[in-house]
């Protein structure tokens, strides 16, 4: 029965989609082997690849990477081979989805690493950055494997999620705005970043915010040997993190408005063509996975610190109140924009999802 369902599901797909459905599982197996070798080599050489903030975690945690790779290497083949039919479907899907969640946690902070590389060509640890990249690749492959197995065993089309005949064609929906509630969430997410942008821009222009001047912030960057674009941008009054925040606002607006689904008229050779779905979704999901957890944890902590429930160190600021002002600007931005970005990305995914339309027989 399962073999019939798998064959029916694949028969409904165009050739390129069939190839993807068949290749994502083997690609996940190859990834598991490479990830396991990476984790084992780092453990044997005592190279920490897991970080908690700026500090490396104990090397013993490297063995968790090996464990994830081993479990993935054992479970993913069961979704590809006939003997896997004897394994309960719910169990296989639960394990694969669970591994994807673990890899997503391991990839946390990848956005910050990428921003650091683009701006200053530096990261806290290249080994840790490599672990985050491999974990992010694992998330994509494991989610793809789980979805392919889920659709194959239920006889549904991986593209539209429905059951239909073999003669179908893809139809991409016309550009459309997101529902009103999603647009409101996106606008709130944009507004949440404005105080953060104002704070960073004030410092970049040499002004004073929360008792700290731009001159006070510059030595901090030089102390960390910031190079690349960072000093160049700050020399003209542009804070790199404020620039990234502005790009985040542009991204989320494109996710909820029709113009985010079609290349603009001034784009050479691409004007009027549909934007590939992965182009905005990849940075949106990466940004949401990085900002939302950080903000959802940090915002309650800052709130408790403001109420005096938990102690907060004022750091380099003159007063605790100054530090809290800066913390509120940052946590509101990360939480508000991160959550709104996740909502907008989901809406964009659903609105741009191609539909399978029955094709009449010749």
UniProtKB/TrEMBL annotation:
Keywords, ordered alphabetically: Membrane, Transmembrane, Transmembrane helix
Provenance organism: Streptoalloteichus tenebrarius (strain ATCC 17920 / DSM 40477 / JCM 4838 / CBS 697.72 / NBRC 16177 / NCIMB 11028 / NRRL B-12390 / A12253. 1 / ISP 5477) (Streptomyces tenebrarius)
Keyword Transmembrane helix: yes
Name by which UniProt lists this protein: Uncharacterized protein
Residues in the signal sequence: none
Domain of life: Bacteria
Transmembrane region(s): 24-45, 57-78, 90-114, 126-144, 181-199, 241-260, 281-303, 323-345
């Amino acid at each position: 029965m399962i073999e019939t369902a798998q064959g029916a599901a694949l028969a409904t797909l165009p050739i390129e989609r069939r190839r993807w459905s068949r290749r994502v599982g083997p690609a996940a197996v190859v990834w598991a082997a490479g990830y396991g070798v990476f984790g084992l080599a780092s453990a044997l050489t005592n190279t920490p690849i897991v970080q908690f903030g700026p500090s490396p975690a104990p090397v013993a945690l490297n063995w968790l990477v090996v464990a994830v790779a081993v479990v993935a290497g054992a479970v993913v083949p069961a979704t590809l081979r006939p003997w896997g039919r004897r394994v309960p479907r719910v169990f296989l899907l639960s394990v694969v989805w669970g591994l994807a969640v673990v890899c997503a946690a391991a990839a946390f902070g990848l956005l910050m690493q990428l921003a650091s590389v683009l701006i200053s060509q530096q990261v806290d640890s290249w080994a840790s950055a490599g672990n985050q990249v491999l974990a992010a690749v694992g998330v994509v492959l494991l989610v793809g494997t789980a979805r392919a197995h889920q659709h194959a065993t239920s006889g549904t089309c991986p593209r539209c999620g429905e059951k239909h005949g073999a003669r179908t064609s893809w139809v991409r929906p016309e550009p459309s705005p997101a529902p009103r509630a999603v647009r409101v969430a996106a606008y709130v997410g944009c507004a949440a970043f404005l105080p953060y942008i104002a704070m960073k821009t004030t410092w970049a222009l040499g002004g004073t915010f929360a008792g700290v001047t731009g001159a006070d912030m510059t030595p901090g960057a030089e102390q960390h040997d910031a190079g690349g674009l960072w000093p160049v941008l700050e020399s003209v009054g542009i804070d790199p993190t404020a620039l990234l925040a502005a790009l985040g606002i542009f991204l989320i607006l494109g996710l909820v408005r029709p113009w985010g689904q079609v290349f603009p008229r001034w784009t050479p050779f691409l004007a009027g063509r549909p934007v590939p779905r992965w182009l905005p979704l990849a940075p949106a999901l990466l940004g949401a996975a990085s900002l939302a957890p950080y903000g959802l944890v940090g915002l309650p902590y800052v709130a408790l610190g403001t109420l005096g429930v938990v102690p907060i160190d004022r750091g380099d600021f003159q007063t605790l109140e100054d530090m809290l002002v800066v913390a509120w600007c940052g946590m509101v931005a990360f939480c508000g924009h991160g959550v709104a970005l996740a909502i907008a990305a989901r809406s964009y995914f659903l609105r741009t999802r191609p539909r399978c339309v029955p094709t009449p027989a010749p």
